[in-house]
From TrEMBL:
Cofactor binding, per record: Binds 1 divalent metal cation per subunit.
Biological pathway: Carbohydrate degradation; pentose phosphate pathway; D-xylulose 5-phosphate from D-ribulose 5-phosphate (non-oxidative stage): step 1/1
Name assigned to this protein: Ribulose-phosphate 3-epimerase
Source organism of this protein record: Coleophoma cylindrospora
CDD domains: RPE (cd00429)
Keywords: Carbohydrate metabolism, Cobalt, Isomerase, Manganese, Metal-binding, Zinc
PROSITE patterns: RIBUL_P_3_EPIMER_1, RIBUL_P_3_EPIMER_2
PANTHER family in the cross-refs: RIBULOSE-5-PHOSPHATE-3-EPIMERASE
SUPFAM superfamilies listed in its UniProt record: Ribulose-phoshate binding barrel
Residues the record marks as active site: D36 (proton acceptor), D202 (proton donor)
Cofactor(s) needed: Mn(2+); Fe(2+); Co(2+); a divalent metal cation
Protein's UniProt keywords contain Isomerase: yes
Class of enzymatic activity (EC top level): isomerase
């Protein structure tokens, strides 16, 4: 499996001191920052948009290599993922992870050629994200079957291949929810077919749930409340890493 990547979700950080929270988190041993963007439509909650990403970018050095330390992993829980690609690129996002569910409803509606074959629209969006110079991720909610990803992952065209798949282990919208172990067979099925794929899990992860996720084959670990709620965030980050590397 690819190397462990620990990506604390700043959703549980102190939004009044976000710049410092971000730089502290990197200094505490995090690889990436997981940046949750919610629009109040795709999910029943609102966080922040590109102007905030621009500001926190100035507190965290850009990664010097693909998937490197300081990567901004933007989890786009938004109804119109295509619309915001350029804006987030300009704000300093490195990895733009959109939801499959949003892509098939919004890009299919936007683009006349996509309506006849909605399945091709996630690939078009991945190509578009790559053309803008970002890595592309694709996320699925607990109610979406992993099978929808096979066609996308099987593409022969590198430009249309996702750099990461995100399996949600809670219903997106809020931090601090209970981990859904029911989602782990999706991770295991992905890992069995794709030994080198970056597989991210998000929701309810912490020292008590990491072993199950790591055993299933996840290597990119998001944790919000477990990191930011801890007395010693660096200890939690180290524990998560050890569990994935074990
Ligand atoms: C939930 C977000 C998560 C959230 C995770 O919709 O996508 O990234 O911050 O928070 P915890 O780790 O507290 O479940
Ligand atoms: Zn997230």
């Amino acid at each position: 499996a690819p190397p462990a990547i620990i990506a604390p979700s700043i959703l549980s950080a102190d939004f009044g001191a976000l710049g410092k929270e971000c730089s502290d988190t990197i200094n505490n041993g995090a690889d990436w920052l997981h940046v949750d963007i919610m629009d109040g439509h795709f999910v029943p909650n609102i966080t922040f948009g590109a102007p905030v990403v621009t500001k926190i970018r100035s507190h965290v050095a850009k990664p010097t290599e693909k998937h490197g330390k300081g990567t901004f992993d933007c989890h786009m829980m938004i109804a119109e993922p295509k619309k915001w690609v350029k804006e987030f690129k300009n704000a300093g996002c490195d990895l733009y992870c959109f939801h499959y569910e949003a892509a098939i409803s919004s890009t299919a509606a936007e683009s006349p050629e996509a309506t006849s074959d909605a399945k091709t629209s996630p690939k078009e969006l991945i190509r578009y994200i790559h053309d803008q110079g970002m890595l592309a991720g694709i996320a699925i909610k607990p109610d979406t079957k992993v099978d929808v990803l096979w066609d996308i992952l099987e593409t022969k065209d590198e430009k249309e291949k996702p750099d990461m798949v995100l399996i949600m282990t809670v219903h997106p919208g809020f931090g601090g929810q209970k981990f859904m172990a029911s989602e782990l067979p999706k991770v295991a099925a992905l890992r069995q077919r794709y030994p080198e794929l970056n597989i991210e899990v998000d929701g309810g992860l912490g020292p008590g749930t990491i072993d199950q996720a790591a055993d299933a084959g996840a290597n990119v670990i998001v944790a919000g409340s477990a990191v930011f709620g801890a007395k010693d965030p660096s200890e939690v980050i180290a524990k998560l890493r050890e569990a994935v590397e074990a």
